Amino acid sequence: MDTNDKKTRRDSGHHGSFSWLWILLPLIVILVVLQVSKAVKVHQSTLPKPVYPDRPIVKPDNPTVDVNQPLYLWQNEDGKYGYIDKTGKEVIPCQWESASEFHEGLARVRKEEDGDAGFINKKGEMAIPYQWYYASDFHDGMALVIREGEDNYGYIDDKGRLMIPCKWKYAHDFCEGMACVADSEGNWGYYDKTGEMVIPCQWYDASDFHDGLARVQKEKNGKVSFINKRGDLVFECPWYVVFNFHDGRARVQDRYSDDYGYIDKKGDLIIPFHWDSANDFQEGLARVRKDGKEGYIDKTGKLVIDYQWSLASDFHDGMACVIADDAKIGFIDKTGELVIPYQWIRATDFNEGMACVVSIEDDESRSGFIDKTGELVIPCQWNVDDADNWFNINWDSYFHDGLAGVRGRDGHLHYIDKTGRIVK
Prior knowledge:
The chain is mainly beta. The chain contains one helix and 37 strands.
């Protein structure tokens, strides 16, 4: 055999071995990496998890709980608070000394009356740990907070992250995606929901945004102006008493006659000064008073329901409370027709098609509920808080998501459905 031929085959054999090695080497590397990664994960699982005060760890979702169902605040015989569902079932056990209703999926709770506040979700999980001396309900996805031992306000988002630092002397809830804050000098500015100060503190006085505009004053007793969400001046008012916009109109008062009128979003006085008092537009109508009687105008200023009541309420659910000369309360519709006769000594606005009303039963005031036909569908049998307000009965005397809170003769809170059945 030719030596050159042997050499050629020997070299060929080495090349074959190297080709197999190049195939196996990546597989070996992958296996080693996987083993190392597994070992690191095991090691990390034995370490304490980091806790960031402003970024709490939220438990994973429990798919067996319906987070979209309405829940209602409930207090047991021991004075502890928890939450029930529409059937009266206690779905989050009573365990807190203090608690609030759910707002935007979160409820504020305290383990101790004077303890720090945190927030739970509708599964009863601690979504935001107890760490705030003061906390508001959530509005527009943000809540006001104050730290223990401090006086200044900041804002957290619904994950518990501190989006706006606690350094503001005064602060309002978020409204239309903006929050009004005041610095240590009392000058007001605005934040957006990203935590950016979009309008620097420069105003002596300022209000929340309504209908895309905010009312501001540059100096004490100065003229009122309106700005947009970029901080641009939209218009300046020649009047000193100006209210926020609602339904495209804002009330203004003439400083000489003290009469009220309305401006549009351009600042034009489109409804002239005429009324002794006036209210915001609700459902397209505004309640106004002239010579001691109240009626209603439309957005052009036309009197659509004549002055005839000493006291009335704004429209809600298409109905308004009105009081007769003998102090009995009835309800009108938007045409001004008395659709529910005067017969109640107190009443609330309609909500979810029901209104709470009060009559005298056995020489005592008792509350029940009527529907929009005026039928007493839930008899007057529930306790009534002492109050001088004609249109307010109990803080919980409205239907929300199908249930209303009522007080029994023993003073205990109960929840009823729209048939009057006690669910809890």
